[in-house]
Every structure is written in structure tokens, then in C-alpha cells.
Amino acid sequence: MKIALPLLMSLCAFGAVAAEATRPTPPDDLPQISAEMKAAFNACKESGRPGGEDFDSCMASKGFAKPEGRGEPPADENQAGAGESVE
């Protein structure tokens, strides 16, 4: 019985180390947002939420158009009608 507690403690410690070792590290080459883009973003947040038409048109008027190839986000599975086909 005297060995059970130290064995349990060491197993917990090894589990924590293993969990930390498998955590992915963030990439170092993430693009940085310029000060101009950040100021435009903060100004356009008042006109609507990011991704909305009003927000996108505000950003475009400030010279930051939405990049091509960015479609609509996937539908939320919890919304009514999600997963139903439209015919």
C-alpha cells in the first residue's frame, strides 16, 4: 500500500508530460496585420460584424477588399434547416 500513492502520483506526472508533448505548436510564419488594416478593422466593426456585407463594403472602401476564394462559412449544424437539401 505504501507504493500505491507514489506510483499513482508518478503516473499522473507522466501523463501530464505526455499531454504537453503532443500539443501542436503554432506556426511562426503567421502574417502580421498592418497598423492601417487594424485601424480600418476597428473602424468598420461599428458598421457591422466581420464577414457581413456592411463590414466588407466598409473595408473595401478603405482599400482592403475581401480576398477571392473565401466562400461562405459552413452552415451551423444547430440551426433550423441545417443539413436539409434545397430543391
Topology:
Layout: H1 4-21, H2 35-44, H3 53-61
What does this structure look like?
- The termini are far apart.
- It is elongated and about 70 Å long.
- The chain is built from three helices and no strands.
- It is an all-alpha fold and 87 residues long.
- The chain has a domain of 34 residues.
- The longest helix has 18 residues.
Number of helices: 3
Helix content: 40-55%
In whole angstroms, the N-to-C terminal distance is 68 Å
Overall spatial form: elongated
The H/E string reads HHH
What average pLDDT do the residues reach? Answer: 76
Determine Rg (CA atoms, Å): 24 Å
Which residues form runs of ≥5 with pLDDT under 50?
none
Number of β-strand runs: 0
Structural class: mainly alpha
Protein name: PsiF repeat-containing protein
Organism: Aeromonas simiae
Signal peptide: 1-18
Region (Disordered): 45-87
Characterize this entry briefly.
The chain has 87 residues and is mainly α. It contains three helices and no strands.
Task: Give me some keywords for this one.
87 residues; mainly alpha; 0% strand
